[in-house]
Give the backbone structure.
Amino acid sequence: MCSFEPQRTLKEIVNYACSHNTQLKQLGIRVKGGSSIIFPRISSCQALTSLKLYVYPKGLYINGKRTLFPKYLNLPALTSLDLTYFTFCASDNADHAEPFSSFNSLNNLIISSCTVMDAPILRISSATLVNLIMSYNSPDFTKIELSAPSLYTITFDGIPYQRLSGSSLSSVKQVKIDADISTRFEEFSLILFNWLQELDNIKSLTVTASTLQILSLVPDLFNVKLPSLLCNLKTLKVKLKSLPFRLHLISELAMFKNKSHKEIHKRPEASAEPFFTIPEGIVDILFQNSPSREIDITDYRSPHQIVQWVEIDLKTVIINGGYR
């Protein structure tokens, strides 16, 4: 009877795949535990254009140790990189990690559940990067620096732990945010607002209702003028979907803070689903410097959660069903 050895099997599979290194274009690996055998073999795949690596840690789901990503990986043809559960390392005496600068053809980058070791900053440098997706990354680092003059779309899911900065962000035209928080409401609302201030040249903003709730918690947001905020914004897309239970607190806080808060949807008394609202005035804040506006509201809840629509005063509103 043959015994099954995961590491030996993984090594054989990786070796077989990389033995075709001149023809191998796409490679995806999803594994739990050690990955020491992966990167030495991948580095020989010079024709590789797409790489997906999901290396889940051993031990507890949250506290497991993430895999170290190489400081340098020579894949000149790589255009798409998707990483889950990795740690990026800073260079000697540097205050930042810069793991992607060697990829000279990179167009699409996804980093999920990743962190930075021994530095507070993750620097994403790429002259060719067009699309960036960041999802539920670690709170262990505090800032993301972007040096990507071709970057067009940024998509974010999760808790906004990191502030955003960059010297060439005017190329970004589309931003999608599905924000979540559990505590430190004011801090995370200010971080989200910082993103919008840094990405002031965007034309399309897609957010969830909970993201708008978080933004509404920015201190004095409804009492000050912001002449440089989102001057080119043309389209706001709002996704209505069921909130996690903890985000019920956001709605409560927003309603307490903003006395003129108006509900677009209301929860029936018999329903146990947390209700959510779009804070009154938040749309006007986002469009205050824009010469035109288009609002696209899409509902992703199940039909039994839909109670009624309440008319809101907007120049253009598009309401979609889209149950999922």
Remarks:
- Residues 251 and 276 are 6 Å apart (CA to CA).
- Residues 1-5, 260-275, 304-324 have pLDDT under 50 and may be disordered.
- The longest helix spans residues 185-198.
- The chain is about 15% helix and 25% strand.
